[in-house]
Design a protein that fits this description.
With 214 residues, the protein is α/β, with parallel strands linked by helices. It has a single domain, classed as P-loop containing nucleotide triphosphate hydrolases (Rossmann fold), CATH 3.40.50.300. The protein has nine helices and seven strands, in the order E-H-E-H-H-H-E-H-E-H-E-E-H-H-E-H. A five-stranded parallel sheet has the order 2-3-1-4-7, with helices on both faces. Helix 1 packs across helix 9, helix 2 packs across helix 3 and helix 6 packs across helix 7. It is globular and about 55 Å long.
């Protein structure tokens, strides 16, 4: 079963992915993880990815599709995959549909986590982390007492990617480049819109219910 996990940055995809992949019995395939693995292993794909990144340009759709295709062709994905962070553009979506069809497969369902932008901004911009031990906090939901890590005593910080202005730009990019992917997919598969607000367990139940999982 091939399932796509959609949603804006900060919608909770990573939080839900592990349990969902286990329930489906398929690997969790995240584009960021694939890139990092190839970079670490020094493969030809990794070298090419590094060249794009060092050049300061965007990784082209054709290369992203190639690197995802290499992962989906691995033996553990023979029965399907949970794709997280792909496709991000209409070009990538059409490639995935055609790639699967050529192999007698398809996208069985899409889980689209729907979260208001205001909630995303609050979630992400409120994150804090400890640069020493990696502990994570949130100024509203799980604050660090006195802005100091309760685990090791270091001052907690806000990552650059979590600053409000950066989060807003990422949401704008998502709306411009990734939201248009949904109509492409809707013509070929079922899209389940699931509210991504509330307790983690509650959201998980809604996802599992949409996919007929118990």
């Amino acid at each position: 079963m091939n399932v796509l996990l959609f949603g804006p940055p900060g919608s909770g995809k990573g939080t839900q992915a592990k349990d969902l992949a286990e329930a489906l019995g398929v690997p969790h395939v995240a584009t960021g993880d694939i890139f990092r693995r190839h970079l670490k292993d020094g493969t030809d794909l990794g070298s090419r990815a590094k060249a794009y990144m060092q050049g300061g340009g965007l990784v082209p759709d054709s290369f992203t599709c190639e690197i995802v295709g290499s992962r989906l062709a691995e033996s553990d994905a023979a029965r399907g995959a949970l794709l997280d962070g792909f496709p991000r553009t209409a070009v990538q979506a059409q490639w995935l549909l055609d790639w699967l069809q050529a192999r007698g497969s398809r996208v069985d369902a899409v889980i689209n986590l729907v979260v208001p932008d205001s909630v995303i901004v609050e979630r992400v911009s409120g994150r804090r982390s400890c640069p020493s031990c990696g502990a994570t906090y949130h100024v509203t939901f799980a604050p660090a007492p006195g802005d100091v890590c309760s685990r090791c005593g270091s001052a907690v910080v806000q990552r650059e990617d979590d600053k409000e202005a950066v989060v807003v730009r990422r949401l704008e990019t998502y709306a411009r480049e990734t939201v248009p992917v949904l109509p492409v997919l809707r013509s070929r598969t079922t899209i389940h819109d699931v509210a991504g607000t509330g307790e983690v367990a509650e959201i998980r139940c809604h996802i599992f219910s949409a996919l007929g999982l118990t």
